Amino acid sequence: MEISLIKKSTEMITVAERADGIYKMLLEAAPINDSKFDNHFNMLISKAVDYSNYRSRWLGMSPIEQNNIERYRTCSLDIFVDTKDDLGKYMLDHNMSIAWHILLGVDRKNIGDLAYYLSYVQGIKAR
């Protein structure tokens, strides 16, 4: 039991470190005084928070409750993915680095982890 907890803890640290690295790459590429970028970025954060509201409650739900919200959780992640892609396209179109977007890739689990991490950062900032 203790070894599985250590392994799970190590996996969580790795996920958080990866998300933090992607987030830092995004911030480093962010322009100063670009209101359209800011709008895209703020929308990304907003959609991350929306998705994390579903995800954070998931483990405490019964299978019936999970089944009842599954389509909303999936839709929320779909919207986050679209918003992430919109930001990436805007950045590419304006000659900004999209290394963060490339590193993140298309794996929905990794994208969801980034959404949850962005929500976490937003929550800490709001203190």
Structural commentary:
By secondary structure, the chain is mainly alpha-helical. 83% of the residues lie in helices and 0% in strands. The termini are far apart.
- Classify the secondary structure makeup into a structural class: mainly alpha
The outline comes out as globular
The total strand number stands at: 0
Instruction: Please give the largest β-sheet.
Output: none
C-alpha termini separation? 35 Å
Radius of gyration, rounded? 16 Å
Strand content: under 5%
Query: Can you write the helix and strand succession as a string?
Result: HHHHH
What's the SSE blueprint?
Layout: H1 2-29, H2 35-57, H3 63-93, H4 99-104, H5 108-125
Attribute tags:
127 residues; mainly alpha; 5 helices; 83% helix; disordered N terminus
Write a brief structural summary.
This protein is mainly α. It contains 5 helices and no strands.
